[in-house]
Design brief:
homodimer; about 325 residues; alpha/beta; 434 Repressor (Amino-terminal Domain); Rossmann fold; four-stranded parallel β-sheet; 12 helices; 12 strands; about 45% helix; DNA-binding; Lambda_DNA-bd_dom_sf (chains A, B)
Amino acid sequence: MATIYEVSERAGVSLATVSRVINGTAKVSEKTRQRVMAAMKALNYRPNSAAQSLASNCYNSVGMLVSEVHGPFFGEMMSGVETVLRAAHKHVIIAAGHSDEQSEKEAIEFLRGRSCDALILHADAVSDQYLIDLAKEDDAFVVMNRHIDAIADQCISLDNRHGGYLATKALLEQGHRKIAYIAGPLKKTDAKERLQGHKKALREFDVAFDAALMREGDFESASGAQAMSELLKAGKKFTAVVCGNDEMACGAMNTARDAGLQLPEDLSIIGFDNVIMSRYTFPHLSTIDYPIGEMGRMAAKWVLKNIYQQDDIDIIHHFEPSLILRDSVKAK
Amino acid sequence: MATIYEVSERAGVSLATVSRVINGTAKVSEKTRQRVMAAMKALNYRPNSAAQSLASNCYNSVGMLVSEVHGPFFGEMMSGVETVLRAAHKHVIIAAGHSDEQSEKEAIEFLRGRSCDALILHADAVSDQYLIDLAKEDDAFVVMNRHIDAIADQCISLDNRHGGYLATKALLEQGHRKIAYIAGPLKKTDAKERLQGHKKALREFDVAFDAALMREGDFESASGAQAMSELLKAGKKFTAVVCGNDEMACGAMNTARDAGLQLPEDLSIIGFDNVIMSRYTFPHLSTIDYPIGEMGRMAAKWVLKNIYQQDDIDIIHHFEPSLILRDSVKAK
DNA sequence: TTGTATGCGTTATCAA
DNA sequence: TTGATAACGCATACAA
C-alpha cells in the first residue's frame, strides 16, 4: 500500500503538501494540486486511517448501542443514524446491550475502547447514575429514549408516559372500561412510563386499575402471545387491551384470534411505536406513533453538532407521541 | 489520557514490558505483571486503538454492507454478525447500499477506507465482475446471499431458485393452477432466482407461466400491497399468489382482505424468508425458511477463520431453503 | 505557497 | 525475562 511519502516523492513535493491537498487544510497552488492528485491516483493511494487518527486524534467513527440489532424499532433508529452519519463520512459501529445491565456496560466499554469520537446510546438497563458518572469522565455521548435531568443536554427522548396515556384514553373514549394491559419489561424505564400513562388515563375516567388484568412481556411478539393466552385463560372479562408495543400487540392479536375472538368486535387492541408492520396487520393496528427514525437522525445530528463542530444544526431534545387510530379499536 | 509510557514509568519497567502484559505476547514474570496491572489500573489506562492499529496493522473491525439497515431480514443478519464478532472483540461497522450500484460501490469504498480488516457484503446491485475484480485487489471479504463461481470460497449463499421452486410447488400440490407472482426487484439476483424457481415448478406441472399474472415489487410491504391491488384490478382470475418475500406477502394479504377476499379460502398466499412476523400474521403465513441469522453468524465465522486466523472453525458455504406450511395456503 | 521536523502511542525486532 | 530503539503513516507548528 502506497504511503503519503511515496505520493510526495512521485509528485515531487513534500509530504506536508500532500497532506494539505488530502485535507484541504491550507492553500495549495492548482498546479501542484493536480500533480499530487495524479500521483495519488497512479499509486492507488488511500490514506491510512489509523495513522490519521493517531496524528489528528479524530477517529471519524461513532458508536451506537441498541438493545437488540434486530427488530423494527431499532432498525428504524439505526437506519436514521446511519443515513445522517454516513453522509457526513462518519463510520457507525454497532453493539447490542440486550437490556442487561452488565452486558450494556460491557458494550459501552467495548465502544469506548475503540476510541469512537462519540456514542449514541439506547441503554435501558444501566442506571441514570451510571450515565451521569460516565458523562463526568467523558461527555461525548447522547442518550436516546430517556430523559435524565442532570444531563438533559445529552438526551433525546419521547414522552412515553403521555403516549401510554393517549393509548388508554383512546380506548376509554370509545366506551371501554374493562381494559387489560400487556406491559413491556418493567425494569425498562420506557415500559414503566407507558404503564404510568395508562394508569393516569384510567384515573381520569374513574376506572380502577386491575392488576389481574395486567401481564408483563418483553417487547417481543411471542411474549405478547403468551400474555394474551394467560389473560384469556384467567377468565376475567375485558373488552380491550393496551400493549406496551406493536410487536406484543401482534402476538396478542394472533392468540386472541386463534382463541376464536373476532377482532375488533370482541376485543379492541392498541399498540405502541407505529412500526411499519402495524399498517399491515389484520385488523390494521391502532397505535401510538413513535418517530424513532427521526429521533435517530436527530441523535446523529447531535453528534455532528457537538462533536464534529457543525454549528449550523438545531437540536430537538424532546419528541411527542401521537395517536394513530386504525381498525383495531372499536366503540363498545 | 494516560499512555503506555506513563504506565511503564509508574511500574518501573520499560514500555516494551507493558506492551507484553497488555497483549500477552511474551513471558513476563508474575511479579512485574502485577506491578504493571496495578499501574494501569491506577492511571485508568486504556490503550490507544489508533496507535495499536498503526503499529500492528490490525484494526479489529469488520465492515458490513446491507441493502437497508432496517427490515426484518437484515436485522436478523446483522444481529447474527454482531453476536459472533463482538464475542471475539471485533467491532462491526455498518453501511447501507440501498440496492443501488453506485451507492453500493461508494459504501464499499467507504468501508475499505476505514481500513476494516474484512468486509461482509450483502451487495445486490454491483456485478459479479466488480466483486471478482475487488477480490483481486484485496480478498478480505465474504459475500452473502450470492454465489459467484470465481470466488466461491468467499460466498455464503442460499439456493434461492430452489426456494422459489418449493414455494410454487407447494401451491401446485394443493391443486392451484392459476398462480399469480409478485416478484422482488428483478435487478436483484435473488429475486430473479426465486422467479426462476417459480417457473421451473410451473413447468413441472405443465402450467404455462402467465406474464399477466406477474408484478414486480421492491421487497417492501407497500409494494406488495400495490401489486396485489393491480392484480385484482386487472380482473384476471387467480386462486393463489407467490410473493418474493414475506413483507410483500403481508402487504398483499392486507390489500386482498381490504378488497373483501377471505383468506385463505378465496386466495392462498405464500411468502419467502420466514421472518419473525410471518408467524403472527392472519392467517399465519406459509413461507420458505431462509436461515439468515445463522448465515450471518457463519459470515462472521468466515472472517474469524480467514482473517483472524482462528483455524478451528468449519465454514458452511451453502444453505438450503425449506418449506414452512402454515395457514395461508389452502387446497383448491 | 511550500518544506522541515517533530510528535501521536503503539508493536516488534534486536540485544542484553 | 527485560530493555532500547526503530518503525507504523500521517498531521501540524514553524520556517522559509
